[in-house]
Amino acid sequence: RGVSREPGALWTEPGCRSCTCQEGRVLCDTVNCSIPCSHPLPAPAGGCCPTCTGCLHEGVARAEGDVFSPSDGNCSVCVCLAGNVSCLSPECPPGSCPSPSPSDCCSCHPAKCTFRGRTYAHGARFSLDGDGCTTCICQGGEVECSFAPCPILDCPQHQWHLRPGQCCSSCRDTPAPTGCFLDDNGVEFPVGQLWSPGDPCELCICQADGSVSCRRTECLETCPHPIRIPGQCCPDCSAGCTYMGRVFSNNETFPSDLDPCLSCICLVR
């Protein structure tokens, strides 16, 4: 690079490459950084390796010997020493205490609650009178009770019903429909009844919930001259042949209406 180097010289090239001059040749390799700490700071400007003269904790640079509290607010105290962060939690007095907490970091609660002649441990949950409708909890030497929440019913209030042993009301069971009532013609069909509403290709059924389900029949014509029978959905290819408005049975012969010298035969294929 236009610069003369003495034999054995050692220098750093841009891109954190370490180079040396040996026997007239320049040998370069990537700088290998040894980091003897757990929370190193990023490399300073122009440097390649992180530094341990401080600590990087939760994205915040801390100076050597700095004492601080972590961001989670759990009352721990941390210190930066030789690039390592050490945190200590406060020691709280064991057991119960009758007075409020002496500090914001130590929670001090009575161990038990006495309620209606019975003793409950701190944090215990129990049901009032054993009915399951009221939930109580022992918290800080006091018993707090609350009613079990009831769901919002989607039926009118006159249909609400409180069953024996239940805490919340429920909707009365509505009787199952016995059939399907059609408003257009006033006809009621029983559940499971099949009928055609006027179109022979449409078939309806009365379902168990009182609704009507209809479906159309798709016909497949498999012969060139199908016969349509009144009241029947699909044309019939096995009944015979239609010719000039007349129906002839299979294998039946008849004179042609166009030429009396011609004789025709009905062949179902």
From TrEMBL:
Keyword Aminoacyl-tRNA synthetase belongs to the record: no
Keywords from the named record: Glycoprotein, Secreted, Signal
Pfam families registered for this protein in UniProt: VWC, VWC2L_2nd
Gene Ontology process terms (BP): cellular response to virus
Domain (VWFC) ranges: 1-53, 53-114, 111-172, 178-238
A cellular component annotation (GO) from this entry: extracellular region
Membrane keyword on record: no
InterPro entries: vWF_C/EGF_Fibrillin (IPR052080), VWF_dom (IPR001007)
SUPFAM superfamilies xrefs: FnI-like domain
Membrane-spanning parts: none
Compartment(s) where it occurs, according to its Swiss-Prot or TrEMBL record: Secreted
Domain of life: Eukaryota
Protein name as catalogued: VWCE protein
